[in-house]
Amino acid sequence: MPDADPILLELYRHRFEGVADEMGGTLQRTSYSPNIKERLDFSCAVFDADGRLVAQAAHIPVHLGAMPASVAAALDAVNRWRPGDIVVLNDPYEGGTHLPDVTMVSPVFVDDGEAPTFFVASRAHHADVGGMTPGSLPLAHELVQEGLVIPPVKLYEDGTPNEALMRLLLRNVRTPAERRGDLAAQRAAHAVGTRRLQELAQENGVEEVAAYARHLQTYSERRVREALADWPAGRYTFEDTLELADDTTATICVTATVDGDGVAFDFEGTDAADDGNLNAVLPITESACYYVVQGLVEGEMPVNAGSLVPVSVTAPEGTLVNADPPHAVAGGNVETSQRIVDTVLGALAPARPERVPAAGQGTMNNLTIGGTRPDGSSFAYYETIAGGMGAGPDGDGLGGVHVHMTNTLNTPVEALEQSYPFRVTTYRLRDGSGGPGSHCGGDGLVREYELLTPVTVTMLSTRRSEGPWGRDGGKRGAPGRNVLVHPDGEEETLPAHFSRRLPEGSRLRVETPGGGGCGTGPQRE
Amino acid sequence: MAASSSSPVGVDVGGTFTDFVVVTDDGLQVHKQPTTRPQHEAVVRGLDEMAGADDVPVVHGTTTATNALLERRGATTALVTTEGFADVLTIGRQNRPDLYDLQPSRPAPLVPENRRHEVPERLSEEGEVLTPLDEEAVRRVAATITEQEIDSVAVVFLFSYRNSDHEARAAEILRDELPPTVSITRSSTLLPEYREYERTATTVVNAYVRPQVARYLDRLDEALGARSVRVMQSNGGTIGLDTAAEEAARLALSGPAGGVVGALGVARRALDADAPQIMTLDMGGTSADVALCDGAVPRTTEHTIADLPLRLPSTDIHTVGAGGGSIAHVDAGGSLRVGPESAGAEPGPVCYGRGGAEPTVTDAHLVLGRLAPEHVLGGDDTLDMAPEAARNAVGGLGQQIDRSPEETALGILQVANATMERALRRVSVERGHDPRDCTLVPFGGAGPLHAVELAEALGMRRVLVPPAPGVLSALGLLMADVVYDTARAVLTPAETLADDPVPLTAARDAAAADVRSVLNTHGTPDLALEVDLRYEGQSYELSVPLDAPVTEAAVQDAVYAFHERHRDRYGHADPDEPVEVVALRVRGRVAVPPPELPREPETDTPLADARLGTRPVRFDADGATDTPTYDRTALHHGHTFDGPAILHQYDTTIVVPPGWHARIDARQNVRIER
Question: Which CATH fold would you assign to the domain B482-590?
């Protein structure tokens, strides 16, 4: 392959990113789930003929390593691709991460080619995919309890929908009309992406377009390697913990080996997979590591398969960070992923002391409220609640913000109360919860709900027993709290994880963790 | 060539110059003044120098509101809000701006914590009172606000779009208790729509800029004596001074609006179409604004300014960091990047000879011969051009990537164009439009340099360059009608309203009364109704027209139009799904007689009279082509020629590449087609 032209390289960066952007814009606008539309919990990406990432519209870091795994699983599952095929999947043990994240993968054929030249993929957090509780993030013990498991299968073949499969899917979820709308939205995004890639190939020749997909990967790999070469070589180890559903604590351990222009993360020493759902499949662990490296590397650069090459991730099978079937995984994606980031950042702090912040809230405070409205219709509402960001060497941490592996939007109170039988009575910064230090951690939030009908509340949260760690002499942020205020006013502290039927008139108050403080200079609080 | 005494003057304040435009029988009369702070000094000086009658009406585009926000120099502002929700403004949507920034900072909120005051009160989503307003608490807050020496107060309660009683009462108490100089903005009058963060932010923005804008407009009004003044708003319409002062947030995004109105007005006349499909490209020194007009100025309520959402209707413009001053560099991975860093006006491109050392887009044009040293952007005759320095800077960059200065310069333009192409695609393709059906209207100092190549990349067949691209925004001011928009939250299933449209007619009546009372000094407005519809459960709306009178049939027609628009825009529609009416929008418009852009008869002067000469210009890697250059002011109706050609004029340069054909029309536009 001839060398890349520096000008065409930049032109193609715009072009491929433009395709992913246009897909993302289409998906956001056409979807039904608030998770996708309002909270932007989705990603769209372009892959080359070998299933290597070319460009991804940056929305959710946890999808970084997970999208390539989906495409790899789809490629394994399909012998022969035809135009108009769309594979759908959510099986965490075959290309997925947790069940609500439903991924579509489809081929892009150019010029009557025999084989696909590109693939496009989209992943979106659907509001419900069945299982034990509305919202499909139950406190389960095995995968099949969590919802409908979809291995990589063709939902569209030759452009024709597999109606039998569609009926089966929709029969197994709580809100079928919404699911159908979201799947249609993903398909619309694929149509846009396919058309744009075909136009690019027609305008510029398929060889050039394919060649520059590879050039961009080489480019990103070179950029990341150059950045890693500045890191001091060494082995850096760190441990952190998270609470499990049975009130025990598990340890995540990582050793980062910086050597030349690469970095290897090995999670040897991490506890075995959990009987609950805090299990992360390996693509999540990879996503967390890629995220940290992206955050620590200077300068803006395109994220693609090349930028992932210098980073290797290994973890013993059957652990919390490389779970095996039939373990439940709902919390691995949202909670364990956060702790993996904290652990990896902790390990790299000595290597990049000027860039690594203290631990942020380290949880997404996943709250699902489900039940029946007074008019008899059922509902399922899922949201994640922001908290404090860790302070860094440069300054205080932000308060009331999502950290690391998620960046989803909140649902406006005025939208939520219009649709669901509960009210938000307080939504405020949690004063003083950020960890002290010469730079303070960001404050967590207080969000209190008043329940107007009996509902089932499911909470998946961590950093409830011990707050996020400080750095360089900074103190811990305040741990989070889940508080039930009974109708008679009595307060009861609930555990980090619970699923509980609550009567009308109860209030649930979630206090999210503050970020850790940083620095031994004059202390502030 | 004095203007007739009634011809209004368009006065548009830009970063460097304040532009003045009058349409006379002979064409456009253009004047420039260096922009001053406060802005009215340049306005007054310019009007004096133009020596028109002293009662000539003025239509004004001002950046006072925008600058107050961008520079965070607005009023000391307080927020009074529902108990439990004082931090809505800080929390925002709880997301962070950059995914991978591990140590982000964010600008301090416009209202710091100690000036955000909660009062007990609460409404339900239906507007029923759950907790009555604690009037004593409001009085206590008033006392605190008085001590805090606050200039401006925003009052925002949850669900006030359903029932404004609490906000109205709280504002009344504050009015009684606070010094008369303190201004009070209520969310239920400014933006009676749902989503508390966006409504709060918009209301706070208004409170924050209002005192400064009011002061400025006051001084302007006084300085202009007998002249009447209207001011441009973000929505592309103008408004009187009183409303502009009270609802100053309506001016926050007005800067680019004039240009889009001007481009559409020019295109309407040139293409002899009421509703031409155009894309606008306003390229200046640091950035490029693009917009798609499907026969009308595009509007959105999803704009942000200074990192805050502004939910008042604004001209729907997408901005990217590509301008004449955008700096080119080779990044660590060996890729040629252009922008978003810009050399701006100071020091400016290398060729300005003011100390700029890094090659810019303007320098690339110079290296390729598309710009000539004596015709560089902006018409600033104080510049002492340094073409050799520009060539050396571009050449230096070329050495890093093993390319000749010319190849590098071509690359710089291609990369800058890729950024703009992406923006043009985004505003068209994503909204279900095909750029190939559009005419591209470039303006700003640099737009006409890039437009034809962009049109080529997008498969467009026609570019229309207005007569004075550098002052199109000022011309647009003269083409803008008097407009006032307001809305009411509805949040009711369409099916319910199709059975009984009374809630909708009630909302229409209330909104229409507001519109009429704002516009009554300008005339009787034409009212246009729109409804924001969505499929139930969706959280994004599409606006479709609603016919008056508001009958069952009108509601059904709107629902039908919604399905169609949903299909156009998103590729699918589901006529069986229930549809919800989220909001009713009322736009009042008092038409302003558009300036009659004079037509000139077909010329009989030979084209050669406009010819400046020939110089080698590069359009591609194959080498330079001897290219005729023309003085645009000497080109007249009926002149036609094929590309390549370069047209120079005072405030811009137009590039007509090979394969394109140019013709001057009766209104002095250059039509470039293939």
Answer: Dna Ligase; domain 1 (3.30.1490)
